[in-house]
Amino acid sequence: MQIGWKKRIAALTSNIVNPFSVSFLMVILLSVTSASSTIDAVKWISISVVISILPVFAVIIYLVRNERLEGIFIKAREQRNKIYLLAGICAAVCCAVLYFLGAPGILVVSFVAGLSAIVIFMCINLWWKISVHTAFVAASVTVLIIMFGSPGAVAAVLLPPIAWSRIELRHHSPAQVAGGAFAASLVVMAVLYLFGMT
Fold first, then answer.
1. DSSP per residue over 5-68, as a string?
2. Which CA distances in Å does 171 have to 2, 60, 131, 148?
3. 33, 69, 121, 139: which has the highest count of C-beta atoms within 10 A?
4. Residue of 124, 50, 116 whose CA lies nearest to 80
5. pTM score, two decimals?
6. What is the pLDDT of residues 79-91, one digit of tens each?
């Protein structure tokens, strides 16, 4: 019975703190805190979500319903390649659109960091699967710390439970969970440093 409850809690944690919800919240936060007005913030949120998040989510839902993927959060490494490619294309298009429309620098650079991470993760995925759940949380925490300092570090409380949930559900090994978090943080720090935002 205890094991059953642990699995349920792990599944709930994994479903709530997932890459889509984390990226959506980060887009809102970055847009609201950096846009010149509420209207602009809504504009950047809408563009970012419509171009980079919704297409990937919609395609995954379609593939799951047609039994071409085992689930929304893909466990099989071999099934991730096409989703990484789609996410990379969407991120690249979003970067270009945001840049040419004059979006806030931190939002554009965050998408550049996301695109860079996707490319690196896609290459790693050819032989090893790392956790995208912990990667999104760790990347977000890194951005928040760089932007807001120690208050942003509060978000780091999400890392242990999401890491535990992925291991408990047997979707990842401890090394894959740690690898996702470390690689994502490193990419974010490197990209923001290159763009002079650290």
1. HHHHHHHHHHHHS-HHHHHHHHHHHHHHHHSSSHHHHHHHHHHHIIIIIHHHHHHHHHHHHTTS
2. 19, 18, 8, 32
3. 139
4. 124
5. 0.92
6. 888 899 999 999 9
